[in-house]
Design goal:
119 residues; mainly alpha; 76% helix; elongated
């Protein structure tokens, strides 16, 4: 229960409360089902208390899956030297992303994905 409370606190941007809850969870469940994730989040929040993570919505997960599918298909096409399909799949990725409001870091990540395909 504490792990889920911590994730909700983190989703709400309450880094200090989330960190305390992750630590308490780890004290009570050091080998628990979510111990690895709790340690990772506690470490990240210990480094930067403002580095809270929002839980993705179902819509965000769907978009992420669509982007991943097209991106992986583009990589597969590139590997098979089917450059027309590769470009088509990357255009599909960019089309999906054009419909989103992206943070600057996400835009850089997407640009790097595209460059990785062309290299």
């Amino acid at each position: 229960m504490l792990y889920f409370i911590a994730t909700l606190q983190e989703d709400a941007g309450q880094g200090k409360l989330a960190l305390d809850s992750y630590r308490k969870y780890l004290l009570e469940n050091s080998a628990g089902q979510y111990a690895t994730q709790a340690r990772q989040r506690a470490t990240a929040l210990s480094t930067n208390i403002s580095a809270t993570q929002k839980m993705p919505t179902s819509g965000e997960r769907k978009v992420s899956e669509q982007v991943s599918t097209h991106y992986n298909d583009a990589i597969d096409a590139y590997t098979k030297k089917d450059y027309q399909k590769c470009v088509s799949e990357m255009q599909a990725v960019l089309g999906i992303l054009d419909n989103l409001v992206l943070r600057k870091s996400e835009i850089h990540t997407i640009i790097n994905w595209g460059l990785a395909i062309l290299v």
